[in-house]
Amino acid sequence: MAAGLNSLFPRPRSITSLDGDDVPAGVVAVETPDASLPPQGYVLRVADGEVRLAYADDAGRRYGRATLAQLAAGGEALPAVEITDWPDLPDRGFMLDVSRDRVPTRETLTRILDLLEAARYTQLQLYTEHTFAYAGHEEVWADASPLTPDDVRWLDASCAARGIELVPNQNVFGHMERWLAHDTYADRAESPGGYTLAGSVRKPAVLEPTADNAAFALGLLEELLPNFSSRRVNIGADETFELGLGRSRDRVAAEGRGAVYVEYVQRILGPLVERGYEVQYWADVLAHHPEYAAALGGVPIVWLYDSPSAIERALDLPAATKERMAAFDASPEQQLGGFATRGAAVIAAGIPFWVAPGTGTWQSIVGRLDNARENILDAATTALAHGGTGFLLTQWGDHGMVEPPPVAFAPLLYGGAVAWCSAANADLDLATTTAELAFGDATHRTGDALVRLGTLGTDLGMPALNATLLFASLFPGRSGMVTTDGLTADAVERVLGTIDAQLASLDLATPQGPDADLVLAELQHAARLARFGARVLLADVGGGALPSVAELDDLLVTQRELWLARSRPGGLSDSLAKFGPLREKLAAG
């Protein structure tokens, strides 16, 4: 097969080499609509001195043209070939968390959009809690550098120009911490004084499920939605852990937690559906109350961010850790079986549903790419096998979104390719693809480094979910889904050696493009942060001395500079403040 065919991205589901001579690269394609093709599908035929493109719709024509452009990129003759392609899943989205301190600049959003277009995503969502500039609610977003209505309208148009739908995403039930922290909104909380779960006191996060609070949430959406051309909306409503632990305790005891949850969600979902919106929401509560799966309406999104093999390994976590995780519906026992188990309620109900795997970048510093690949593939193949209609790759920002944006570029590309056609793209050479497509790096060293550094969490040999030990070492005292029980100095030393080797390799990388220097600096800094975390781990297991506060401060100076190169200033102080416990640990020696 010709080199140009081997480098097509995403890989097409069908490539047939044809007899005959190659076709000059400058030949203009004859384009013809073909209603017999699947939605978004196309057939590109290069033969007999001509190029013909049959397409199902505007999307199919766009993707066919993109494939032709890749074939012609070398400026040489086009190979005689027929390429037939269409997507496994009609809706393929990417969700970026803009509420965990880091709000991207317009330039960063444009950079991401270019990758989404290349990977054939059809949708973008920006996960919002408090980072939209709602009128009259300035105290909530004043320090967050929020997205303004003008920002959203600009982004909506930028997405549309690339064939991508910008879908509003505003949580309206749980994860309302940033609102409920203010006296103005504190009385809306399920537990205004906080609540206790798994032995720890937590700040109020969930709205009390009242008609007044539903009206409040609908009021926010009334202001948000007109800035989008989309007729879809994601209302979140996930992880309502404290529901029934505060003001709704008696109602939940009498009616059941599921019934109270569904009534509140329907107060918001119903009016939106009446206005012609398709309403999405996270499906975690339905996993415990499958009897409501068919009745709730809308489109549930089944989420899971750990791979089947990572979940299996996590069965070896200490019993106390797993017990704490179970309180948050996150123990390995609750996640065994991957997406097929996680989505059993909606699959059995026979209703349209989406799947949501993760980039695995949050709480990792340098990513968990081995986990992300398996998690993404599990999601895409489960949706394909069980009638799922959509795929939403999530990039969360838990605990300050410390990691730089380029760490997510590899899983972003992989997610788009696998959601397009899992059979053709499951074994994608992600190091080469990322280096060439995301970084323009002919040496491939940037892609190689991302892929290799993305296995460090596994290399330590310790079970972990939703995080890595390297990340946990930088944030002592933060309860997580990791353990150091049984960690050896030899394992940490090996990881340090891997990081050093990749730092040396990155010194020889040659990325291209307007942000090439920034990309290189970000990857090197992420590796150095991971190296610092490994040194802390090594000291914890008796293999050396703790690094100094001065070394940490030097890293945080760079962290600040690189943050401001990609992201707005709001949230930066909050993110950096999360390193406070580590500074105290280092100072104490």
Automatic annotation (TrEMBL):
One of its GO terms (biological process) is glycosaminoglycan metabolic process. GO terms for cellular component: membrane. Keywords: Glycosidase, Hydrolase. Pfam families: Glyco_hydro_20, Glyco_hydro_20b. Signal peptide: none annotated. It is an enzyme of class 3 (hydrolase). The keyword Signal does not apply. InterPro entries: Beta_hexosaminidase_sua/sub (IPR025705), GH (IPR017853), Glyco_hydro_20_cat (IPR015883), Hex-like_dom2 (IPR029018), HEX_bac_N (IPR015882). Residues 92-292 form the Glycoside hydrolase family 20 catalytic domain. Residues 24-86 form the Beta-hexosaminidase bacterial type N-terminal domain. Its EC number is 3.2.1.52. The keyword Transmembrane does not apply. GO terms for molecular function: beta-N-acetylhexosaminidase activity. Transmembrane segments: none annotated. It catalyses: Hydrolysis of terminal non-reducing N-acetyl-D-hexosamine residues in N-acetyl-beta-D-hexosaminides. Belongs to the glycosyl hydrolase 20 family. This is beta-N-acetylhexosaminidase. It comes from Beutenbergia cavernae (strain ATCC BAA-8 / DSM 12333 / CCUG 43141 / JCM 11478 / NBRC 16432 / NCIMB 13614 / HKI 0122). The lineage of its organism: Bacteria, Bacillati, Actinomycetota, Actinomycetes, Micrococcales.
